[in-house]
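Troubleshooting log. The previous structure file for this entry was overwritten by mistake, so regenerating from the original sequence record. Sequence copied from the archived sheet and checked twice against the printout by T.R.
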Amino acid sequence: MRVLKEEGDDKDSSSSKADERSMSRNQGYEEQKRRLEARMSKIKHKIAVISGKGGVGKSTMAVNLAMAFAKHGYAHSVGILDADITGPCVPKIIGLHGQKLQVGPAGVFPAIGSLGIKVVSMDFLLPSEEAPVIWRGPLKMKAITEFLSDIVWGELDFLFIDLPPGTGDEPLSIMQLLPEMDGVVIVTIPSEVSQIVVKKAATFSRQLNIPVIGIIENMSGFVCPKCGTEVNIFKAGGGKRIAEELNIPFLGRIPIDPEICTDSDSGIPFIIEHMNSPATKAFMEIVKKVEGFLRAGKQQKMPLKLISKKARSV
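Regenerated output below.
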C-alpha cells in the first residue's frame, strides 16, 4: 500500500510540475504577444515583398523600394525586416553587412542605414559569412516572432518585410503574426515560368486575407547605354498580363540596369547614386501607386458618415 501511495504521490507531483510548465509557457506567450502588438502599433504601414520563386531580384526590389519611400519624404521613418532566415542578404545590399544589433534596457535596436532606414536581419546574428542557419519551421517562427516583438523599431511610417521565395514557413509566420498588414507587393520577371508561380503567391495572400497591393515586373527590358536600343532579354509585358488576368494592380516595370547589380554588391543605395536613371524613376512612380493604394484602403475602412462628410466638404 505504501508503494502504491508513493507512486500516486509521484504521479501527482509530475502532473503538477507539467501544469506549472504549461502555465509558464502560456504566460510567456501572452507576454510576447502583448510586446509584439505594442511594437507594431507604432508602425503605420506594414508591407511584405514576396515572390513565387527565387532569382527575380526580390530583395533588391525590397531595399530600393524602401529607399524610394525614404527619399520620397519618409527619411528616418522606414524600416526593413529581412525575414529570410536561411538566406539573409538585405544587409549586403544596403551596406550594413558585418554590423551587429545593439542591446539596451528597452530591448534590441536595429542597425541604421542610409536615410535613417532601420534594418533587422539574421545576418547580424551570424558569427561568420560561412555560418549556415540549419533550422526547422518552429525555430524560424520563433526568430521572426522575436524580430517583431523584441526589436525596438520605434515609430515608423513604413516597415517593409523581405520574405523568402515561395509560401513556406517564413511567409506564413509573418502573415499570421501581422493579420493587420496593409498588403503584399509581388515581384516577378517577364518570363512565363515566373508568371506561373505569381499565381500561387497571389492565391496564398488572398487565402490569408492579406491584400495584394500590386505586381512589379523586374528585369523588364535592357536599354543599351551606348546606342539607346532596347532589348527584351527576358521578354516583356508578362507582369502586366498576369496582373490583368488576376485583377491585381500593375505597379510598374523596372528595366535591367548593370549599375543596380554593381551597387548592390558594393552596398551602395542605387536610387541615391543614380537619381536620373530610368530604373530610379520607375521606383518613384511605384511609390506613388503604393501610396494611392494605401489611401484608398484607408478610405474604405472609414465609417460611412465620415466619408459622406468628407465628400460634401470637397
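The longest strand covers residues 212-223. Archived copy saved in two places this time.
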